[in-house]
């Protein structure tokens, strides 16, 4: 399925996004809105590794032009959500979603539902509700500052046990251990596994790099607290 899915997504992207690529580059340099994309082969690998399936929910926080949202719905049949703050990227995402439905009809293919939300994911209440039922969260936070990454971790407090979060920067500093001083910190919810992506996985460099799979795991906090009794 991945090959047909990539073909369909690439047609949609060429028609809707490619002619507007200059617009996408109009972000403030070194801001949280620096634009870059995870490429379809890498995204397929993430879905496969984390076994995203048709009865599950996917959420891309900072979904840009909606590529990963559409890909999740098409490749896995899951319920797929995205939220994007930049108007021009969000408009392209909406246009891609319309073209997506037309292409699906043409190919006679069914996909999961797609919901694209425009605005700040930190401020939209509905997102907290959707996150409660989400199985896989994607955050391409490579260019996010420490404050935004910290605010995201606070949003993860409501996620269910076992929910996976894929990110390009870890939310947990290397060597972090739970101690009496930091036991209240929300980063203790996250069990982090570092992985490597290959060359050609992201739009901003050809170089290989690292990505992180965090799992919501409250058992380590419980274990620590029990050990203190
Ligand atoms: C690097 S792009 C990732 C696009 C897409 N998820 C991908 O990986 O291909 C990150 C996006 O997050 C968006 N973003 C940053 N802060 C946000 C916020 N508070 N609410 C919604 N979107 C945000 C940026 O505008 C940018 O488009």
UniProtKB/TrEMBL annotation:
Q: What does its activity-regulation comment describe?
A: Ubiquitination of histone H2B to form H2BK123ub1 is required for efficient DOT1 methyltransferase activity on histone H3.
- In the UniProt record, does the keyword S-adenosyl-L-methionine occur? yes
Q: Which CDD domains match?
A: AdoMet_MTases
So which domain of life are we looking at? Answer: Eukaryota
Q: Which GO terms describe its biological process?
A: DNA damage checkpoint signaling; DNA repair; methylation
Domain DOT1 span(s) in chain numbering: 1-229
Q: Which compartment or compartments is the protein found in?
A: Nucleus
Q: A cellular component term (GO) from this record?
A: nucleus
Concerning Pfam families, the annotation shows:
DOT1
Write down the InterPro entries for this protein, in alphabetical order.
Answer: DOT1_dom, H3-K79_meTrfase, SAM-dependent_MTases_sf
In short, the EC number is 2.1.1.360
Instruction: Kindly list the residue ranges recorded as spanning the membrane.
Output: none
Report the family membership: Belongs to the class I-like SAM-binding methyltransferase superfamily. DOT1 family.
What does this protein's UniProt record list under function?
A: Histone methyltransferase that specifically trimethylates histone H3 to form H3K79me3. This methylation is required for telomere silencing and for the pachytene checkpoint during the meiotic cell cycle by allowing the recruitment of RAD9 to double strand breaks. Nucleosomes are preferred as substrate compared to free histone.
Its recorded name reads: Histone-lysine N-methyltransferase, H3 lysine-79 specific
Species of origin: Lipomyces starkeyi NRRL Y-11557
Source taxonomy: Eukaryota, Fungi, Dikarya, Ascomycota, Saccharomycotina
């Amino acid at each position: 399925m991945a090959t047909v899915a990539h073909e369909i997504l690439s047609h949609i992207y060429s028609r809707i996004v490619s002619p507007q690529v200059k617009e996408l580059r109009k972000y403030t340099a070194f801001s949280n809105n620096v634009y870059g994309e995870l490429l379809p082969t890498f995204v397929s690998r993430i879905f496969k590794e984390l076994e995203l399936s048709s009865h599950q929910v996917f959420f891309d926080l900072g979904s840009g032009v909606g590529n990963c949202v559409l890909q999740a719905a098409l490749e896995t049949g899951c319920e797929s959500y995205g939220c994007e703050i930049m108007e021009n990227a969000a408009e392209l995402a909406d246009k891609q979603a319309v073209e997506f439905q037309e292409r699906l009809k043409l190919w006679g293919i069914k996909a999961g539902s797609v919901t694209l939300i425009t605005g700040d994911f930190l401020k939209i209440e509905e997102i907290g509700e959707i996150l409660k039922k989400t199985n896989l969260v994607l955050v391409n936070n490579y260019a996010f500052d420490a404050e935004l990454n910290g605010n995201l971790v606070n949003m993860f407090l409501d996620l269910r046990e076992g929910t996976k979060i894929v990110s390009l920067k870890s939310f947990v500093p290397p060597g972090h251990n739970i101690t009496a001083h930091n036991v209240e910190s929300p980063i203790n919810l996250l069990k982090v596994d570092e992985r490597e992506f290959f060359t050609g996985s992201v739009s901003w460099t050809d170089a290989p790099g690292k990505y992180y799979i965090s799992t919501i795991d409250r058992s380590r906090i419980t274990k620590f607290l029990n050990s203190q009794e």
